[in-house]
Write a structure and sequence with these properties.
heterodimer, A: 108 residues, mainly beta, 6-stranded mixed sheet, globular, B: mainly beta, 0% helix
Chain lengths: 108, 118
């Protein structure tokens, strides 16, 4: 089955840039989506189809996808960005949604 | 604005059946979208349970497939999750979501906590 690998945690100071990776075999050939989870709140789609932002998501959130790694980049990080972030793809081989293990973003 | 809302018992006995419903507003359950269930166990990551289209097609997580049924009620504009033979490992926050372009989940419910305990 298809596996997505994320770092368990990323720490960044306010105003700096956070980079969260999502590794998978030839993930560049798939569409990658990213979600933000805060305690007690509904998950929020922050990037869809590799690099597209849904309406209402700040331009500070961006994504890229190539080779074996997809990346979520958060520029000018704010305290409110502290959350868990998950990448997700559709595995057409097994007809199922696959999530990465999640990355906890800590704003120092 | 599309909104989803989960409802159902917060406590289920071991070996029993977990049943949840997701009410949809702002979109038709009979649209071209698929409708999904996702869960998050305490201290764990997101786990996809499965999805269904109103025409009857469905896809399930292989690890849960033998115990899961997702159904759609077009008359009530809602969809449901049934998970049989539950154990403590099924204790989680359960989310319903709309499956969108390229299988991204663009709208989510707030989630409902289900505890499996006697």
């Amino acid at each position: 089955s298809y596996v997505l690998t994320q770092p368990p945690s990323v720490s960044v100071a306010p105003g700096q840039t956070a980079t969260i990776t999502c590794g998978g075999e030839n993930i560049g050939a798939k569409s990658v989506h990213w979600y933000q989870l805060k305690p007690g709140q509904a998950p929020v789609l922050v990037v869809h189809e590799d690099s597209n932002r849904p309406s209402g998501i700040p331009e500070r959130f961006s994504g890229s996808n190539s080779g074996n790694t997809a990346t979520l980049t958060i520029s000018r990080v704010e305290a409110g960005d502290e959350a868990d972030y998950y990448c997700q793809v559709w595995d057409s081989g097994s007809y199922r949604v696959v999530f990465g293990g999640g990355t906890k973003l800590t704003v120092l | 604005q599309v909104q989803l809302q989960e409802s159902g018992p917060g406590l289920v006995k071991p070996s029993g059946t977990l049943s949840l419903t997701c009410g949809v507003s702002g979109d038709s359950i009979s649209s071209s979208n698929w409708w999904s269930w996702v869960r998050q166990a305490p201290g764990k990551g997101l786990e996809w349970i499965g999805e269904m289209h109103h025409r009857g097609n469905s896809n399930y997580n292989p690890s849960l497939k033998s115990r899961v049924t997702i159904s759609v009620d077009e008359s009530k504009n809602q969809f449901s999750l049934n998970l049989t033979s539950v154990t403590a490992a099924d204790t989680a926050v359960y989310y319903c979501a709309r499956t969108w372009s390229q299988n991204g989940l663009d709208v989510w419910g707030q989630g409902t906590t289900v505890i499996v305990s006697s």
